[in-house]
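User: Some background: our group keeps a shared notebook of sequences we're curious about, and every so often someone picks one and asks for a predicted structure to add to the entry. Today it's my turn. The entry only has the sequence so far, pasted here. Could you supply the structure so I can complete it?
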Amino acid sequence: MTLLTRWGAELDPDAVLPEYPRPQLVRDGHLNLNGRWEYAFTGGGRRQPAEYDGEIIVPFSPESPLSGVGRQLRPDETLWYRRTVDLPDGFRPEGHRVLLHFGAVDQTCHVFVNDIEVGGHEGGYLPFCLDITDALRDGSGTLVVEVRDPSDTGDRAWGKQKLKRGGIWYTAQSGIWQTVWIECVPAVHVERLTLVPHLDESCVEVTVHAEADQPAQIQIHAEGEVVGQADAAPNEAVRIPVPDVRPWSPEDPFLYDVTVRLGDDHVAGYFGMRSFGVGPDENGTPRLLLNGRPYFHAGILDQGYWSDGMYTAPSDEAMVHDIATMKRLGFTMLRKHIKVEPLRWYHHCDRLGILVWQDMVNGGGPYRPAVITPPAVVPMRLGDGRHEWFGRAGAGGRERFREEMRETIGHLRNVVSIAVWVPFNEGWGQFDAAAVAAEVKALDPTRTVDHASGWHDQGAGDLNSLHVYFRRFRVPRRSDPRVLVLSEYGGYNLRVDGHAFNDKDFGYKRYDSAGRLGAAFARLHAQQIVPAIPRGLSATVYTQLSDVEDELNGLLTYDREVCKLPEDLVRSVNARLRLTGGTGLTSAGGPPPPTR
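Assistant: Of course. Here's the predicted structure to add to the notebook entry:
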């Protein structure tokens, strides 16, 4: 059965995800290439097909219902995309370069314009950009994309995708799954911005990255008024004072605007004045800090899967729905689980006001059940220097993970709401986690690191991070200087007929009515979670935001149509968590900033 969301049911193939895709580096004008393309599946060779199989709706993977294809790309096959590109009159000013952007293509691709190979990319979760100026003919071209995807048979990041799906592992998806778009830039232009708030010093550190020999003009705006400005040499950080700082928080997600001029180039972005860290509360207990004060993270696990678009949300409104619904239910944090979202998702977290724990995407494999399964029920800790035990025997695969980790941190560094980096989860492809945590902290000292979420703790990072599903949660007796967090728990199941992916029913405890589920949910928190907060528990991540395929343990059904528990009940539980954790419930500011 095809399980459509309300947004998928209303999808216009000629206006798919039309919003500007890069909210923290905005230029006037862009050409969105989402929508109708041609596609073809061929054998493993690189010869372009003579004929194409039909129409695909980009950026939905061919395995997803919204793509219109419904076919799995196998490791021994090649997926081809084709469409024509015609730049509108006046779109490219004289002397400007034409840049082609892909939000993400899973997993390895080569790109051709007018039969000229203009570049390619490896890795399925991060964006890339190609200069196609010289390949166009009078502003037009035929664009062809060649894709291969070994999925979980390779060692690059593949997340929770499996060719043999089931249980906690989901249908493998492939190809283009984020927005494809074109922009024109002057020869001298801003390549990226690095924006680092220093709340304790009431300033923001701005770096304008560009190949240029002229200064950039930077302005900081608050509610339309210029509050700070400076000239800065390219690639050199400059600190700009921010007067009368209004800190960002989930209760008051205030954002400052920033504009940059470099020659003929003009870009706009934003930042929030906030700080993350760890430190003692008034009793000396280690806590997570937001803006220098203890702040309880009442979180939920967010897989980012959709019943009709798989990795790709059917619309911008759908992304907002998930974030806004969880915030309305009283959660202050989303743990983005084993996936890197489009930048617009993070933008909505920034402006709506919800913290994000960002997982890195696991790779390697195959994983040994004896390593990744028993810790769920039996206390067990293995040293992750035994790489072959964790599916990480290959040195090349380990280095590729670290490369993608560095790129992920660089890609998401400016996101206001990201509070925690999570390199590894439950031993999946884990290796040398202490050294990896140290590298993460060196790359970004402004955020907290959860080096090994769940088990196989190596004693590193900032958090003592536990997953508890099959036993009662108790605060560990062993003293630990790190902050105690329950980074996964719950996972209670309820099937809602007419809103399930199939007849499977995977989860950790099953209930047959919303009443029984609600009573168990309330009892779990009252008896196990709330009493642990005064003893050091500083964050929780309930499993999970929505059902995903076989898993029926979401607060929402897979199609997002049903909230399985009364909203008042979930809000009251989260309110108690936050009050016990010392986090206030009232907002200090007005409505969230508008979308961009």
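Suggested note for the entry: The longest strand covers residues 78-86. Confidence is low (pLDDT under 50) at residues 585-590.
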